[in-house]
Design a protein that fits this description.
The complex is a heterodimer of chains A (260) and B (307). Chain A has 260 residues and is an all-alpha fold. In chain A, 78% of the residues lie in helices and 0% in strands. Chain B is mainly alpha-helical and 307 residues long. The chains are: A mainly alpha (260), B mainly alpha (307).
């Protein structure tokens, strides 16, 4: 009994090591003076960070990524929140099928989503570019907003809305003053997930961006493939930090329900 | 179900007080259209129709670098009849199977430990699990390039331990791709498994053991059957994500390690043969949808068995 527990825990420890070591390796490399990804680290420096943030292309890619992710997350949040209300608050015959349809961009391979939008845009004589990338990112952000906001709506005490209505508030006022504030943590959590999905996306962006638009994951990819520089380690570390902080915040928002 | 049954009393109250709409029924329909309309429109216009377009183009012909609307089955014949493409397809499926099994064997014990840990530690371990889950796939794949390179961490540790004299070539091999894929998709296995294992009452295990079952039997007869929904979700996710991966074979594998996504991309962006690329994509899409349907049936079957 004891031994089994020990073996199980040891295994779990090794798996966590397997999951985290590569990520730590990137962070370590970002502080190494070596120009290549060479172990062991002989001496330490922070110069790759200043070089990365002094690199016009990297800064431009970061700005593009931010812009795309913010717009995509806003649209996904608006559309996804509305849809969540539709699915949770109504029952209709095709509800389950519709829900599956809304969630399907998660499971359909990204290569298909990418070339499908490419074919569609070409048919309409639209060039690849930022708008196309945003359209694709909204597709994959929607399921996350839908899931998180739905969870919030299911744990929602509807008698609060009834009370407001009984006291004479109309539907719009009730939504603004009662419903919205109560589901806000869900909306914010969903928005953060949609932002992160968009910010980290590689394949759809790579397929749809054309030559003009360069996001940070695509730029990191082209640096890995074509022009290796130790700045990759630094900017990767920054990306890890950004995603992880956003996810921790969205977790806090999701967990907030239990405390209130 | 609760959602459908519950508003009956409420609608009456709302109809009495809400001055905005006259009849509850029309207002309900308008509201539903406002709520689901934008999302449905987005998905139909930018997802469903574009995917149908791939299917349509897959029957077009292609000659002298031009696509024409003369309908043909040649693309499918070539996709399924040519050795190269069959190999790529089978390799993608084989990788999917290997990575799914690897994730299951590696991940199941972890999900179990997680589910049985005390509340505080469980929360911490869970957070630690979603960090790699949400780390950019480009960064994680690049991380394995650092790990497995000639001067990488793995070679360094092995040499330091005296296990090898000269660096081993790990990169650009099938093994490198498989390890990278397992790393990238492992959380997709652990998270759904954890979700079901957490709900299994530990007293069930104790009861089985009190009644004389040993650990193995308890696992096989109690825990494993109860965890099947999470297990099937995890397996389906990992399998579908793996066969669709693009980045990992591209970065960690050599030119011979291309998977189906890489080949489809090349047809669209290098040779510009959209009909043939479309046929490959359609075959891939059908395989994916078949997997999802099979999963759905198995899962419903599973629920029926519970009753």
């Amino acid at each position: 009994m004891r031994l089994e527990r020990f073996v199980l825990r040891l295994w779990a420890g090794l798996v966590y090591l397997f999951l985290f070591t590569p990520i730590f390796a990137v962070v370590l490399m970002s502080f190494s003076t070596s120009k290549y990804s060479t172990f062991p680290v002989r001496s330490w420096t922070a110069k790759w960070y200043s070089e990365a943030f002094g690199d016009e292309k990297i800064v431009a890619a970061l700005q593009t990524s931010l812009l795309i992710s913010i717009v995509a997350a806003l649209i996904a949040t608006l559309v996804g929140t509305l849809a969540a209300m539709g699915f949770v608050r109504n029952s209709f015959r095709s509800r389950e099928i519709m829900r599956a349809f809304f969630l399907s961009p998660l499971i359909i391979p990204e290569i298909i989503t990418g070339i499908a939008l490419l074919s569609f845009a070409t048919l309409l004589s639209v060039q690849g570019g930022m708008i196309l990338v945003i359209i694709g990112h909204v597709l994959i952000g929607l399921p996350f907003v839908l899931t998180v906001v739905s969870a919030r709506l299911y744990g929602f005490d509807r008698s609060l809305e009834e009370a407001a209505m009984d006291l004479g508030a109309d539907e719009v006022t009730t939504f603004r003053k009662i419903t919205l504030p109560l589901i806000m943590p869900g909306i914010a959590g969903g928005a953060l997930l949609a932002f992160t999905v968009s910010f980290d996306n590689f394949l759809i962006t790579y397929l749809l961006a054309g030559s003009e638009v360069m996001t940070i994951p695509v730029h990191i990819y082209s640096m890995i493939r074509f022009e290796f520089t130790p700045k990759i380690h630094a900017i990767s570390t920054v990306i890890i930090f950004v995603s992880v902080s956003l996810i921790l915040v969205s977790q806090l928002l999701a967990g907030e329900r239990r405390q209130t | 179900m609760s959602v459908g049954a519950e508003p009956a009393g409420r609608t009456g109250a709302a109809a009495g007080t809400a001055s905005l709409f006259d009849t509850a029924r029309t207002s309900g329909k308008t509201r539903l259209a406002v709520q689901l309309g934008p999302g449905t429109a987005w998905l139909v216009a930018f997802f469903a129709i574009p995917i149908l377009l791939i299917l349509v183009y897959s029957f077009y012909s292609f000659s002298d670098g031009q696509m024409s609307s003369v309908l043909t089955l040649d693309n499918y014949q070539r996709a399924l009849g040519t050795e190269v493409y069959r190999t790529v397809l089978f390799k993608s499926l084989r990788y999917g199977l290997i990575v799914t099994i690897a994730c299951l064997l590696v991940g199941y014990p972890v999900a179990y430990v997680l589910a049985r840990a005390g509340a505080k530690r469980r929360h911490l371990l869970f957070l630690a699990l979603i960090i790699p889950f949400w780390t950019s796939i480009v960064v994680r794949t690049f991380a394995w390039k650092i790990m497995l390179g000639t001067n990488g961490l793995v070679n360094y540790v092995l040499r330091d331990l005296g296990l090898i004299d000269l660096p081993v070539k790990f990169l650009y091999t099938e093994q490198a791709v498989l390890v990278g894929l397992t790393h990238v998709f492992l959380p997709f296995m652990i998270l759904p498994l954890y979700a079901v294992l957490e709900k299994i009452d530990p007293s069930l295990e104790e009861a089985a053991m009190d009644l004389g079952a040993n650990r193995l039997r308890t696992f096989l007869r109690v825990i494993l059957p109860l965890s099947l929904p999470g297990l099937s979700t995890g397996c389906m996710l990992v399998f579908i994500l793996t066969i669709g991966s693009y980045l990992t074979p591209d970065i960690l594998g050599g030119p011979s390690e291309l998977m189906i996504s890489n080949v489809i991309r090349n047809e669209y962006y290098v040779t510009f043969n959209w009909p043939f690329g479309g046929a490959l994509a359609s075959i891939f899409l059908i395989i994916t949808l078949a997997m999802i349907l099979a999963y759905n049936r198995a899962f419903k079957f599973d629920r029926m068995a519970e009753r």
